[in-house]
Specification:
Keywords: Glycosyltransferase, Transferase
Organism: Carya illinoinensis
Structural class: alpha/beta
Pfam families: UDPGT
CATH class of the largest domain: Alpha Beta
Largest sheet: 7 strands, parallel
Number of domains: 2
Family: Belongs to the UDP-glycosyltransferase family.
CATH architecture of the largest domain: 3-Layer(aba) Sandwich
Bound molecules: uridine-5'-diphosphate
Protein name: Glycosyltransferase
Radius of gyration: 22 Å
Oligomer: single chain
Helix content: 40-55%
CATH topology of the largest domain: Rossmann fold
CATH superfamily of the largest domain: Glycogen Phosphorylase B
Length: about 475
């Protein structure tokens, strides 16, 4: 049997590492001819959490980890000016270590190297692949429409030469059905401190890859996927949804999890609205008060993951709240006892799978969207950071798969979403027989069909594997 190896290069940080490892596992479960080496860059600030790496290293011999040395991160000030530029520069400074690791750990073995799999921020490693004469694949953790946005950036930059502005007219971007208003653009597109230009460069580099792997399915993003049938765009492989259904990757406190699941067991079917805002979502006190009032006035039961901003301006992750009585409106906890539950980090996938959940107020991170579609739970959109505004726009306007709470909200902007807006959106979200709910249920079935034999993503992953194996049967590129 012909065998081959792949080298995966994830961006440092738990979210990217988790998605990359999920894909590695997905690939290995489908085809045992591969072995995978994952190159681990150190996190720039916080000590790297290696528990996920250790558990996979212990349980799966087909995945090998190579820990790269620490490099000096760019100055901290750059992080506050543009997270995107900071990460891009940090990853770039790993280039020589990555090249050396590939030579020493992959090219020196007898197993042929079928390609590098680099994630979103690691487009500079496509150059390393060129230098070594090895094919490269981008593993894109966002969705297909946003990938189309990134492809559009260099074209637009060539014409306009400057970042987007809040006062710009709507932008017609091929991967979106409707023109995008500036409020729906990701913050990086407006960033003058290097965020925008970093993404222009990533978008340009992606076009030199041998393939693009996206965690989506063609039935969900048919418009975006068909916008790629164009000369010069590498083959696109839609291989999702890849969902960590056992919640292994993001497990939190086990006792808290049991209490949450027990509480949900006691609630009527489809009666609870779940509020949860991703790994970096947090709110200041005035916003938490408005949310509490909005929820109470909606009259619906709720499970609400409340997290507070870290004290170091966002370098560390948000923290769970300890003094809820002081933060929330007076007597809110008493009045909502039995109707609502507040938690910290939530076992999100298990919660969305629970029959008591009827709706999800979400920050629209792409994993959260896929998880909620999988379980047929409609979303009310409340984007916060990264590309979540674009995701919210696509879900509400392009796909009719979500209720609009906000599309243009940006974390840290100082804007307040008032109680009335939350009340109205939650009432609309929880309607039993809404058009959105019907469409979400249909998409849920399609998402499950996509990944089983005969499904679109199953077939797409098969094509990817064929292409990768073909790399080791033909002479390597010059
Ligand atoms: N998540 C979770 N509990 C929480 C918050 C998030 O389990 O309290 C998980 C969620 O299920 C998803 C991931 O963390 O798998 C968040 O990914 P997403 O792409 O939605 O957002 P990000 O954190 O990257 O902004």
């Amino acid at each position: 049997m012909k065998r081959a190896q792949l080298v995966f290069i994830p961006t440092p940080g738990m979210g990217h590492l988790a998605s990359t490892l999920a894909f590695a596992k997905h690939l290995l479960d489908r085809d045992d001819r591969f072995s995978i080496t994952v190159l681990i860059m150190k996190a720039a600030f916080a000590p790297t959490n290696h528990s996920l790496v250790q558990s996979i290293a212990a349980s799966d011999t087909r995945v090998r980890f190579v820990h790269l040395p620490q490099v000096d991160p760019p100055p901290k000030e750059l992080f506050f000016k543009s997270v995107e530029k900071f990460i891009t520069e940090y990853v770039e400074s790993y280039r020589s270590h990555v090249k050396e690791a590939i030579i020493n750990h992959a090219l020196s073995t007898s197993l042929p190297l079928a390609g590098l799999v680099v994630d979103l921020f690691c487009s500079s490693m496509i150059d390393v692949a060129h230098e070594l004469g090895v094919p490269s694949y981008v593993f894109f953790t966002g969705n297909a429409a946003f990938f189309g946005f990134m492809l559009y950036l260099p074209t637009r930059h060539h014409q306009v030469g400057i970042e987007f502005r809040e006062t710009d007219p709507e932008s017609a971007i091929p991967s979106y059905v409707n023109p995008l208003p500036p409020g729906a653009l990701p913050s990086l597109a407006l960033n003058k401190e290097g965020g925008y230009i970093s993404f222009v460069n990533h978008g340009r580099k992606y076009q030199e890859a041998d393939g693009i792997i996206i965690n989506t399915f063609s039935e969900l993003e048919s418009h975006a996927v068909s916008s790629f049938f164009n000369d010069g765009i590498p083959p696109i492989y839609t291989v999702g949804p890849m969902i960590d259904l056992k919640g292994k990757t993001h497990s939190g406190d086990n006792q808290a999890k049991q209490e949450i699941m027990k509480w949900l067991d006691d609630q009527p079917p489809s009666s609870v609205v779940f509020l949860c805002f991703g790994s970096r979502g947090s709110f200041v006190e005035p916003q938490l008060k408005e949310t509490a009032l909005g929820l109470e006035r909606s009259g619906h039961r709720f499970l609400w993951s409340v997290r507070l901003p870290s004290r170091d301006d966002g370098l560390a992750k948000p923290t769970d709240a300890e003094n809820l009585e002081e933060i929330l409106p007076p007597a809110f906890l008493e009045r909502t006892r039995g109707i609502g539950m507040i938690c910290g980090w939530a076992p999100q996938v298990e919660v969305l799978a629970h029959k008591a959940i009827g709706g999800f107020v979400s920050h629209c991170g792409w994993n959260s969207i896929l998880e909620s579609l999988w379980h047929g739970v409609p979303i009310a959109t409340w984007p916060l950071y990264a590309e979540q505004q674009t995701n919210a726009f696509q879900m509400v306007r392009d796909l009719g798969l979500a209720v609009e709470l906000k599309i243009n909200y940006r974390l840290g902007s100082g804007a307040l979403v008032i109680a009335e807006e939350i009340e109205k959106a939650v009432k609309c979200l929880m309607e039993g027989d809404s058009e959105v709910r019907k469409r979400v249920k249909e998409m849920s079935e399609k998402s499950r069909e996509a990944v089983i034999e005969g499904g679109s993503s199953y077939a797409s992953l098969g094509r990817l594997i064929e292409a990768m194996m073909a790399n080791v049967t033909v002479p390597a590129r010059k």
